[in-house]
Amino acid sequence: MLDPIIFSFGPVTVRWYGVLIAAAMVIGAFLALREAKRRDWNEDNFLNMALALLPISILGARIYYVLFNWSYYAANPSEIIAIWHGGLAIHGAIIAGILVIWFFSRYYDFGFGHTLDVVAPSMVLGQAIGRWGNFFNQEAYGYEVDPSKIPWAMYIDGAYRHPTFLYESIWDLLVFLLLLAIRRRRNLLPGDVALTYIIFYSAGRFVIEGLRTDSLMLFGFLRAAQVVSLAAGIGSILIMWYRHRKNITGGRIRSIR
Q1: For 171-201, what is each residue's pLDDT tens digit?
Q2: Residue 206 falls within a domain, yes or no?
Q3: 3 state SS of 166
Q4: Do 22 and 6 contact (CB within 8 A), yes or no?
Q5: CA-CA distance, 69 to 79, in Å (whole number)?
Q6: pLDDT classification of 113: cutoffs 50, 70, 90
Q7: How many CA atoms lie within 13 A of 143 on its CB side?
Q8: DSSP 9
Q9: Which range of residues forms the domain containing residue 93?
Q10: Cβ neighbours of 66 (radius 10 Å)
Q11: DSSP 3-state assignment of 240?
C-alpha cells in the first residue's frame, strides 16, 4: 500500500496530496502569468488576481465537497478543514474561480472572456497534476475489474480496480494540449478557449465518473458530477454556437489577439 505521507517532522506532516496540489497551483499560475505577459497585461494586477484565485478556488472545492457529504461532516466537524485527507470537488473550484475572475477582470479591465481564456489551460493542467494526489491517497478509484481483461487495473483497497484518477489525468492533459493548440488561432471570440475547456473536460468527466465508486450523489441516485458535467457541456456548446452565429450574421468577427 502506498504511503500518503512523504515525511513527518515533529507535529509537521508533509503529504503527497498537499505537495501535488501545491505543485499544480504553482505550475498553473506560472503558465497563466506567461500568457498574461504575452498579452501585455499588467503583471502586478494579474498576480493579485492569482493570489486570490488559488486559495478561493480550493475553498470552493472544499465547500462543494463538504456540502455533498454533510451527514458525515456534521457528525465529524473537525474533519471539515482536513483537506490533506482528500475531498476537493473540482466543480466547486471552477464555480469559485469563475466568480473571482469575474470580479478581478472587471476591476482591472482585463475582459472577462479574455481572462477565462488565459486561466483555462492552467486550470486543466493543474487538474491533471492534482489527480495524482488521489493516487497517493488511494481514493477516486473505480469499480473492481478482472486484471486479465483490464491489464492496466491497479490494486487498490483490496482489489484490482479501474484507475479512474489516471484516466482523468490523461484526459486533462489531452485537453490542455488542445487548448494550447486552439489558443493561437485567429477569429476566436473572447471566452472560446474557456468554453472549449468546459465542453471537453465535461465530456471526459461524464464518462469517467460512471466508473467511480465514490461519486457525490444528488437525491441518492444521480451522480452529481455527471449532472453538472452534462449541464455545463451542453450549455457551453449552445453558448459558443449562439455567439459565433450572432457574430457571423452580424458581419463581424473579433479576434482575441
Answers
A1: 999 999 999 999 888 788 999 999 999 999 9
A2: yes
A3: helix
A4: no
A5: 11
A6: very high
A7: 7
A8: E
A9: 5-249
A10: 20
A11: helix
CA atoms within 13 A on the CB side of 1: 10
Does residue 257 lie in a domain region? no
Domain count of the chain?
1
What percentage of the chain exceeds 90 in pLDDT? 69
Q: Quote the CA–CA distance of 119 and 114 in Å, as a whole number.
A: 9
The mean pLDDT value for 71-85 works out to 88
Q: CA 22, CA 204: separation in Å to the nearest integer? A: 24
175 near 169, Cβ under 8 Å?
A: no
Calpha distance 111→255 (Å, rounded): 13
Residue 18 to residue 152: CA distance in whole angstroms: 26
DSSP per residue over 89-100, as a string?
Answer: -HHHHHHHHHHH
Question: What count of other Cβ atoms lies within 10 Å of the Cβ of residue 87?
Answer: 22
